[in-house]
Amino acid sequence: MAQDHDHRHDHHHNAPPSDTAMRVKALETLLSEKGLVDSSAIDAVIELYETKIGPRNGAAVVARAWCDPDYKARLLKNGSEAIAELGFQGVQGEDMLVVENTDSVHNIVVCTLCSCYPWPTLGLPPVWYKSAPYRSKVVRDPRGVLEEFGVELPESVEIRVWDSNAELRYLVLPQRPAGTDEMTEDQLAELVTRDSMIGTGLVEAPTS
Amino acid sequence: MNGIHDLGGMHGLGPIDREAGEPYFHEEWEGRVFGLFFASFAQGHFNVDQFRHAIERMEPAEYLQSSYYEHWLHAFETLLQEKGIISPEELDRKQAELSQMGDQ
Asked: Which residues of A touch B82 (CB under 8 A)?
């Protein structure tokens, strides 16, 4: 172990900036030469996560829940199954708990230990979600974090912070903004932001 | 197990930096590391818990100073070396070879 570590350390401190890219290339090339990795499979995974899997999926779930009370009840009772009804499932979203924001409760999601995140509904997490400042602070001072995100809630609102783990992932069901009664499900989905489903944002009514 | 990864409640780690219109991968190599994650599991060399543990075993200062996908790269290098799939020398050799090709 110690030797391995020193080895890595040399790389980190003595090498030029492009070193990381080269290390990755060396790793992939070696694995590929040994027949352990298929580079075209890596291309496919990258394309899938860059184009098909992202917060638009979660937004569709939220909009459906706003429009269909039965769906919402199923979603809050068994998140994974209800989300799968819309075709979203898979790695890092096997077990989902959906938590609902109300006038009296606001939910925020974090993963203090690493960066667990519901991939099938939100895609890959932004850098800030994986960063030390967010992970350390949100459990200690959630209102301070909301302030950093420009969100101010009345003192009377209880804030619940959910710490994700390897098995269980959370999705926040944000409140439907007032004045959106006439909007269609698709239009509503357009309003739903990634941050509102993490809990660091609110869904705003459209400004017409 | 306690470790630097257990960040919840810690003080003084600075403001939360956000980036508008953030890409999923900031560098091409980040996407390659991400893709390797699936490929290496598919081959059954290690599981996600071992992968996470390899990150948690990082030197605290290195953990805090390096990025998310650098953590992943660290985990790959650690696990593939520990399991005898790739030796450090092999990796160094390949890296030197690729660098030389790049210089030409």
From this structure: 4
Residue A30 lies in a domain: yes
Q: Which pLDDT belongs to residue A183? A: 97
The answer, for A95 touching chain B at a CB cutoff of 8 Å, is no
Please report the pLDDT score of residue A15 as a whole number. 45
Give residue A141's domain range.
55-198
B49 touches chain A (CB under 8 A): yes
Q: Answer yes or no: is B72 within a domain.
A: yes
A21 touches chain B (CB under 8 A): yes
Averaged pLDDT for residues B8-25: 91
CATH of the domain at B40: 1.10.472.20
Backbone phi, psi, residue A97, to 5°: -120, 125
Subunit contact A166:B22, Cβ cutoff 8 A: no
Q: Flag whether A7 is in a domain.
A: no
Q: What is the mean pLDDT of each run of 10 residues along chain A (208 residues)?
A: 41 56 93 90 92 95 98 97 93 89 98 91 95 95 97 97 92 97 97 98 89
What ipTM goes with this model? 0.89
Closest partner CB to B91 (pick from A26, A41, A126):
A26
Q: How many domains does chain B have?
A: 1
Q: What share of chain B is helix, strand, coil (3-state, %, to 5)?
A: 60, 0, 40
Distances (CA, A) of B67 to A11, A49, A131, A158: 15, 19, 8, 33
For A88-129, the pLDDT digits (tens) are 988 787 899 999 999 999 999 999 998 899 999 999 999 999
